[in-house]
């Protein structure tokens, strides 16, 4: 190659090319915003409709077209739902089962996820694959044998047994999420803690666990939501102590529209409150991932 070819200056884009590049960038950015707005509407519109109808009068629920805001605001549908037979008991069972599932899954998932993330041992990848394969099985494959076992041992129709069933369903996902969170925490932090005199256990509780807490909180939210919304196992493993989703589904065909909207609102409310109080942990986890 000649010296003149090497010294030839690179041609700069002219004004027209720069305008085209800016236009393409603006079009792509506008397309992203449009998609984000459509996704937000797709997710938020049903939630708003449920909330609107839950705080409307029974006559407004049955009327058409619907008002965008409740007019007037009424608690009649919510009172009717709460005072319906078995609702408060089913609500208490749902909260108890979801909290038990969250606690049991988190207690098991934290050490299991840490072991998978930090230690190299034979069969680690096989264990991950087996945990994922559990989620591929239909829920009836797990629910029916467990129902038979619970009946034989006299544990049928109890919130604790349903919590164990929900733990079996949610534990694989929880372990994998927690293990990915621990894997994102650099091992050098633990080594530095041990250099300054911490034992491995002290380094875990004082250094690693606080950094992984946002991810653990996110996995706990996922566990709570999965347990709160689960209905098939609740129907199969309970008869008198049904959870709220199972009780609603059992009475759905003979319920009025105000009852259905109020039931949907009560199903959404605990999850929304839980996410509201835990949102800062999610934001912290998002920031740590971006870093």
Number of strands: 0
Mean pLDDT over all positions: 79
By DSSP (H or I, 4+ residues per run), the number of helices equals: 13
Helix content: over 70%
Low-confidence stretches: 285-291
End-to-end distance: 44 Å
Rg, please?
A: 26 Å
Shape: flat
- Elements, N to C (H/E): HHHHHHHHHHHHH
Return the structural class. Answer: mainly alpha
| Major β-sheet profile | none
Percentage of β-strand residues: under 5%
Commentary on this structure:
This protein has 291 residues and is an all-alpha fold. 78% of the residues lie in helices and 0% in strands. The protein has 13 helices and no strands. It has helices spanning 3-6, 15-54, 58-62, 76-82, 87-118, 124-136, 139-152, 159-184, 187-195, 200-229, 232-237, 244-250, 257-290. Helix 5 (87-118) crosses helix 12, helix 6 (124-136) crosses helix 8 (159-184) and helix 7 crosses helix 8. It is flat, with a radius of gyration of 26 Å. The two termini are 44 Å apart.
Summary keywords:
291 residues; mainly alpha; 13 helices; 0% strand; disordered C terminus
Give the topology, please.
Layout: H1 3-6, H2 15-54, H3 58-62, H4 76-82, H5 87-118, H6 124-136, H7 139-152, H8 159-184, H9 187-195, H10 200-229, H11 232-237, H12 244-250, H13 257-290
Helix pairs in contact: 2-13, 4-13, 5-8, 5-10, 5-12, 6-8, 7-8, 8-10, 9-10, 10-13
